[in-house]
Automatic annotation (TrEMBL):
This is Cyanophycin synthetase. It comes from Nocardioides dokdonensis FR1436. Its EC number is 6.3.2.29. It comes from the Bacteria. It is an enzyme of class 6 (ligase). Residues 396-525 form the Mur ligase C-terminal domain. PANTHER family: CYANOPHYCIN SYNTHETASE, MUR LIGASE FAMILY MEMBER. The lineage of its organism: Bacteria, Bacillati, Actinomycetota, Actinomycetes, Propionibacteriales. GO terms for molecular function: ATP binding; cyanophycin synthetase activity (L-aspartate-adding).
């Protein structure tokens, strides 16, 4: 039961996942009888289990839902039918205004499909099954309406595969600098004016609802993840500013999303519900994100590291805006105006002096969103300068520490790095701060609900780019897999680049302790941390480690460049 705008409709909808095995394998005469009962004329169902039969089944299921709706008293029902990677499963969606009746119709449609398991089913039996389904729906209680919220305050909604948490935190930080009471929700929880009030994963509609339920909140910043859109819908009727950071391989093979193009379609739900007078902030350097400008009703504000991007020229020509980098300055572009330089990248701590291109993009996105929602220019500038890559401002994302070891110190870089793009961004930072001839050591870890291919790829990247790699498990995130299974996949990826015998430790703290224990002065230890962030912070503090200030990080970057 999708409570608000979703992949299928801009309003609340029911999503059915149906087993159509009986229809896919039924004889041609039976398939024709089924089509005739639904009023589907000139049907060509094709042979059982053929591609033609699958296409016929998609069309027939749509007609079935409409037939049950019409015979139960609902006319002109919009229906969307989509295939999945399983030829015997389809996804069907239709809007709803009464919860129990809509649910009853979903169950009734399933009952019709259950009534055609064999070729002996007669036309009369099929007709009775459809009529019975309609009667069931007509007799069902109406139930409650959707709980989709109508925002009373400005909302900035952030989505994407990488960078959405950092970007949403930056926007919230800038908003607080504006003097507003900011509520924001993300994968860590719900924050009100900088205070965590409800821990947990609130990157779906429940997070937005909790933020808007606080009467003192003046600006809402919501992180919207793929899972929330697919399983619950977006709990808001609209947003004022949307941000799409990027689309890269992650969570593929789940909930019927098997390709990057399909994933982009899911992410596009967020800018699609941006108000016409609002702004959709899109990554011009990601072609799938850029293509979303054609499905939004709002104005378009691009961000790009390339000021000469053709996309930037096109959007400016259409009256849009863009944020980019010129001569090392973060600038805003408008048509027929000189660039407006906001701040030098060296003065934006999150970019590590411009070293982290992913955080350059996050800063561009956050500045664009803040300006688009009405934050004054000078407040945006100060917010970019004061937002730090530390446990206070951006916990778990590119946090850097100095930890003492025998005869010196090592740097620890801690990040979620949950997919290929995230891990490559982490190595970008580690490379940028390592002194000449120093090694990179990585604590590799994965979440169990990723595909085998992605887990192997992470193992390959880790072994390719690190001098030393070891596995640190995330016990709370095995998600149906065993540690041995995950180790096998990660090691298989490492073996592709000739790295054998990768050791494994049961926890993130364990692998960090082991790697720091063998690191030499000046070397850089990275940790892909997700399960026990607080435990890692405690271990670093107990080991005498301290967070790197912006000045300390800049000094490390300069030293690495000089070397």
């Amino acid at each position: 039961m999708l409570e608000g705008p979703n992949l299928y409709f801009p309003r609340a909808a029911v999503k059915l996942t149906l087993d159509i095995g009986a229809l896919a394998t039924a004889s041609v005469p039976l398939a024709l009888r089924f089509a005739a009962r639904l009023g589907l004329e000139n049907a060509r169902p094709g042979e059982p289990d053929s591609g033609f039969r699958q296409r016929f089944a998609l069309r027939a299921i749509g007609w079935l839902v409409r037939a049950v709706a019409q015979e139960s008293g609902t006319s002109n029902l919009a229906v969307r039918v989509r295939p999945t990677s399983d030829p015997h499963q389809v996804v069907v969606a239709y809007p709803w205004v009464h919860r129990e009746r809509a649910r009853a119709m979903g169950l009734a449609v399933g009952a019709v499909l259950d009534a055609i398991p064999t070729a002996e089913v007669s036309a009369d039996q099929l007709s009775v099954a459809v009529s019975a389904a309609a009667e069931t729906v007509a007799g069902a209680e109406a139930g409650e309406p959707p709980h989709t919220l109508e925002p009373r305050i400005p909302v900035v909604a952030v989505t994407g595969t990488n960078g959405k948490t950092t970007t949403s935190r930056m926007v919230a930080h800038i908003g607080r600098g504006w003097g507003k009471v900011v509520g924001w929700s993300n994968t860590d929880g719900v924050y009100i004016d900088g205070v965590l009030v409800e821990p947990g994963d609130y990157s779906g509609p429940s997070g937005a609802g909790r933020v808007l339920a606080h009467e003192e909140v003046e600006l809402a910043v919501t992180e919207t993840a793929r899972g929330g859109i697919l399983l619950k819908g977006i709990g808001l009727t609209h947003n004022d500013v949307s941000v799409v950071t990027n689309v890269s391989a992650d969570h593929l093979g789940l909930q019927g999303i098997d390709t990057l193009d399909q994933l982009a379609e899911v992410k596009a739900v967020v800018p699609r519900i941006t108000r016409p007078e609002g702004w959709a902030v899109l990554n011009a350097d990601d072609p799938r994100v850029l293509a979303m400008r054609w499905v939004v009703k709002s104005q378009t504000w691009l961000f790009s590291r390339d000021p000469d991007s053709p996309a930037v020229r096109d959007v400016l020509g259409d009256g849009g805006r863009a944020t980019t980098v010129i001569d090392g300055w973060l600038c805003v572009l408008e048509l027929d105006a000189d660039p407006d330089p906001l701040v030098e990248l060296v003065d934006v701590p999150m970019t590590l002096g411009g070293l982290s291109r992913y955080n350059v993009e996050n800063a561009l996105a956050a500045a664009s969103a803040a300006l688009a929602v009405g934050v004054p220019r000078e407040v945006v500038i100060e917010g970019l300068r004061s937002f730090l890559p530390d446990a206070e401002h951006n916990p778990g994302r590119m946090n850097c520490f100095t930890v003492p070891v025998l005869d010196g110190e090592v740097t620890v870089v801690m990040d979620l790095a949950h997919n290929e793009a995230g891990l490559e961004a982490m190595f970008e930072i580690m490379e940028g701060i390592r002194p000449p001839d120093a090694r990179l050591l990585l604590g590799l870890g994965v979440v169990g609900d990723r595909s085998d291919e992605l887990i192997e790829k992470l193992g390959e990247i880790a072994a390719r780019d690190a001098d030393v790699v070891a596995i640190g498990h995330k016990e709370k995130y095995f998600r149906g897999r065993t540690p041995e299974e995950l180790e096998q996949l990660m090691r298989a990826g490492a073996e592709r680049v000739g790295v054998l015998a990768v050791p494994a430790y049961p926890t993130e703290v364990g692998v960090l302790s082991a790697l720091v224990g063998q690191a030499l002065p000046g070397e850089v230890v990275g940790l892909m941390c997700h399960a026990d962030r607080e435990g890692v912070y405690e271990w670093i503090e107990a080991a005498g480690g301290v967070p790197d200030s912006a000045e300390a990080l800049a000094a490390k970057v300069r030293a690495a460049r000089a070397g």
